[in-house]
Amino acid sequence: MSYIRLDNLRKHYSPQIPKVLESLPAVEIATNYAPIEESVSAFFPATFGLPLLELKEPTSSEETQERIPLTVGVLLSGGQAPGGHNVIAGIFDALKSYHPASSLYGFLMGPGGLLKKQVRELTADVINAYRNSGGFDMIGSDRTKLEKKEDFATALKVAHSLGLDALVIIGGDDSNTNAALLAEYCQAVGDPLVVVGCPKTIDGDLKNAWIETSFGFDTCAKVYAELIGNIQRDCYSSKKYWHFIKLMGRSASHLTLECALLTQPNVAIISEEIAAHNRTLNDIVTQLADVIVMRSERGMDFGSVLIPEGLVEFVPRMKALIVELNKVLAENAHKLHLVKRSQILNYLAGKLTEESASFFLSLPKEMAYQLSMERDPHGNVQVSRIETEELIVTMLKKELDKRKAKGEYKGKFSALTHFFGYEGRCSMPSNFDASYCYALGRTATYLAVHHRSGYMASVRNLVNHPSEWQPAGIPLTLMMHLEERKGMLKAVIKKSLVDIEGAPFRYFRKHRHEWAEGIAYHYPGPIQYFGPSAVCDNTTLTLRLENHLEPEDETYDASSLF
Amino acid sequence: MSYIRLDNLRKHYSPQIPKVLESLPAVEIATNYAPIEESVSAFFPATFGLPLLELKEPTSSEETQERIPLTVGVLLSGGQAPGGHNVIAGIFDALKSYHPASSLYGFLMGPGGLLKKQVRELTADVINAYRNSGGFDMIGSDRTKLEKKEDFATALKVAHSLGLDALVIIGGDDSNTNAALLAEYCQAVGDPLVVVGCPKTIDGDLKNAWIETSFGFDTCAKVYAELIGNIQRDCYSSKKYWHFIKLMGRSASHLTLECALLTQPNVAIISEEIAAHNRTLNDIVTQLADVIVMRSERGMDFGSVLIPEGLVEFVPRMKALIVELNKVLAENAHKLHLVKRSQILNYLAGKLTEESASFFLSLPKEMAYQLSMERDPHGNVQVSRIETEELIVTMLKKELDKRKAKGEYKGKFSALTHFFGYEGRCSMPSNFDASYCYALGRTATYLAVHHRSGYMASVRNLVNHPSEWQPAGIPLTLMMHLEERKGMLKAVIKKSLVDIEGAPFRYFRKHRHEWAEGIAYHYPGPIQYFGPSAVCDNTTLTLRLENHLEPEDETYDASSLF
């Protein structure tokens, strides 16, 4: 039999294109949108109040303007998300179809590459080698922040030297906030550079009234769900272990919730619910122990538990500790290397409030060390490195031993832990993300063609067939609110946490007792690219539920699908 | 858009069937096979020397015998492997097509269920619910050993009470050795029960001149390779981390080698090579450090390393320690709970030889504890619980610090570890495993129809199209040799380790330097069920190389594939 690698073949997939984006669309001003946050206007005097734009098929085929070639720059910012390369392919194809003499430059290794003018022209050969592939390796990414006036001036100088008409920044909430600041700067200094953002993050927290989902979320959730399903099947087959599975997703629990909807585990912890009810780690452990005991009484000494990696930051007491630690670590950064490892915990505790210090020292040592580790460039604790799953298992063992001593529990508790993060971020995008990203890229180009700066490319109506998807331009400032950052009030794009009154969480809440009590596991299997559309092209259950669609199979005749 | 779950749809897949197995084949005695191990005969006086059988399309359509319904029992033994349910489906379908009044019983939770007569009739409804699914949850599995005469007598009594004509034991090398013992017992006591084995294990070590591969190996390797590929893409995109990935596969490194062929990591450690060259852990760490320094000098402070979970048992010094520990733990099993955890390491060291004791106490504490943990029912250390990857990273950090101090290394070493095992064992089988298992099941039934006891079902010619696969019956004793087990010489089915002179390893050896020096990563992506056959239906690169086929894409016109 002949042998072909999927990663080679996949380059030839043609993303599905919204009808509106097949050729140059017209831009219409939408009149009907949610109230704006006036307080943001002070931070964006030049760009605040831009209208929301809808891209539409042009009513007449005659163009009023002569087409001239465009030069566009693009960069990737922050953590990888499946589909990044397709955004770039979408930008490229739309540019070339607008005018074949247009050109595209990619800045290498993120915003840092923009400031250092490390750049590569993205020709058809380059683009074709990366179509529908995962990762950000075409041009790389980093976490350099564009925040300061000097940075904007440098960026603009680089843009001019390359003759850029537009710059597309592909990133999460912070990177898009920075895109807004750069757009504001350009407007303020009267520079015509168009700055457009694209909503990227596997965490799914760049989402609001105008952005249905960020790209990469769909693929990542599907990869993790494949693995969770496989583990659950193993768990149910051998009936020996409790599996504790920590999932990436820095703050919000969207990924954990989506994975729970896809796999129906025995327990899924949702950080936002923990915070809403002011729960402690002990509360979480008590509830888990209740489920373990209940299942044990039914003859099931096995199960699955999903844990969002950001959990510790949502437990109020832990959150307070982390905030204090962030400060102590920042203030003492220059001295820390002088402290012996054996003394570091006591050294830090000595600088905390009494309550936090005693809590800090009561934690398992390994956990306390992890909380004291190096911060990321934003000064945040690296939650993926904190072994929350191990902490919970350790605490659970103690709790179950206690119950056993009291005769309340007779089962056997054997736990295995897993952490899925790097396994998904660079997966080949699902058909959904491949097409969604490609459409975002085309939208970004068309916003640039129409000289619309300070916008985020948006594609909506995503639970319908891609041909019906609706592209739009959302003013970056429209998605902002004020937040305190390092003691300063700033206008930033709002992170969207799981809404515990929203349809996805309500569905989860309605069903979780039945999932806890028995075996309701789903086994989603690997992402499929070639099969029936109802299997291969769908997006997340979160989006389905938000659009009043059930996350259940419809009746169908299997034979008709092949 | 409508929404259909893959795990539901997949039940409707029809495995591809070898032509020979489409209806009742004839059995022919093959004359040409490798020399037999005469020393085994003493252990199997009644069944040794059975002929090797080939299943062939019957030359005439007239059957000499009247068909009467058969009653067959089946059980799953040992760890899960993708495709187990399809073996059972194959048995069932062949039984029913042979005679519609035939019936199939499944013993629950493995050989233990046979002895306890925990059994369930497997009707069409049950079978249909599990077709092409992963896991063993249809009837479960365990690790009970069938070794003693009393057990055989009990098994036979249960078989009689159900009116069984045949029993199919689906398991690895040990389980199939036990199948051979049961077949021998039946023959010796003059019982007509037919006992047939099926080659199951993700480890790929049940493989020899007659068995090309065990089922589940293909799927598992593909799941792990998907994840390794994703991690490598992440690694290459962010250029920050060295990823150390431990892979399941109890003893042999077949899974690690296959994953290396599929993903082309910077380093893959193959236990069999370590043992062949008598290498120490320090040697391994030195070689890894050499690669890390070399890549760092080329500007690449990132990379990927694959580690087989059984590695520690192949490092001669460690192997000696483990053998001693196994003995000490077994001999002192009744006293161990009296020893405090803080004293257990010294307690055990006191009972080891001087050399092992000092090595044991020189290990990182966590590792020493892991080596002292509970043994599996075979008295073996649970290698999957030993954090070899952590040990190697710890040792590497020290080595790199030394080199840094000497000015030989200027890079930044940041390591992340992963372990993949439970993520793959219960995956939905690949098309290859789905069809291979189904063919094995049909073969098992036809061996039973022909009253051939003491055989393993075999299907060969696997790199060709399934229609051309060649079913056979291999005498279980033909695959045996003598081994010392717990101080006694026993005849057992030989485990197949990676042959470092075989084609797969030679291909790896030829290319690994270029993989270490640069970026040669492959990103295989998720298992596909619906696409072009050259993508979806192929088996392992190991098998391709063993059959003189290259593991490279052939030239093709992508458009012709869709």
Automatic annotation (TrEMBL), chains A, B:
- Binding positions for Mg(2+) per the UniProt entry: D173
Assembly with partners or alone: Homodimer.
A Pfam family the protein falls into: PFK
Catalytic residues at D203 (proton acceptor)
The record's section on SUPFAM superfamilies has: Phosphofructokinase
Broad EC category: transferase
Q: Which terms under GO biological process does the entry name?
A: fructose 6-phosphate metabolic process; response to glucose
- Keywords for this protein: Cytoplasm, Glycolysis, Kinase, Magnesium, Metal-binding, Transferase
Ligand binding (diphosphate): G79
- Cofactor(s), names only, from the UniProt record: Mg(2+)
Q: Please state the Enzyme Commission number of this protein.
A: 2.7.1.90
Q: Which Gene3D superfamilies match?
A: 3.40.50.450, Phosphofructokinase domain (3.40.50.460), Phosphofructokinase, domain 3 (1.10.10.480)
Role, per record:
Catalyzes the phosphorylation of D-fructose 6-phosphate, the first committing step of glycolysis. Uses inorganic phosphate (PPi) as phosphoryl donor instead of ATP like common ATP-dependent phosphofructokinases (ATP-PFKs), which renders the reaction reversible, and can thus function both in glycolysis and gluconeogenesis. Consistently, PPi-PFK can replace the enzymes of both the forward (ATP-PFK) and reverse (fructose-bisphosphatase (FBPase)) reactions.
For this protein, the record's HAMAP family field holds: Phosphofructokinase_II_Long (MF_01980)
Which organism was this protein described from?
Answer: Porphyromonas gingivicanis
The record ties this protein, via InterPro entries, to: ATP_PFK, PfpB_PPi_PFK, Phosphofructokinase_dom, PKF_sf
Q: What are the residue positions of the site described as Important for catalytic activity and substrate specificity? A: D174
Residues noted as binding substrate in the record, renumbered to the chain: T201, I202, D203, K240, Y241, M248, G249, R250, E309, Y422, E423, G424, R425
Query: What protein name applies here?
Result: Pyrophosphate--fructose 6-phosphate 1-phosphotransferase
What is one term from the GO cellular component aspect held by the record?
cytosol
- GO MF annotation list: 6-phosphofructokinase activity; ATP binding; diphosphate-fructose-6-phosphate 1-phosphotransferase activity; metal ion binding
Family in the record: Belongs to the phosphofructokinase type A (PFKA) family. PPi-dependent PFK group II subfamily. Clade 'Long' sub-subfamily.
Q: Where is the Phosphofructokinase domain?
A: 72-300
Q: In which pathway does it act?
A: Carbohydrate degradation; glycolysis; D-glyceraldehyde 3-phosphate and glycerone phosphate from D-glucose: step 3/4
Report the subcellular localization.
Answer: Cytoplasm
Catalytic activity, reaction form: beta-D-fructose 6-phosphate + diphosphate = beta-D-fructose 1,6-bisphosphate + phosphate + H(+)
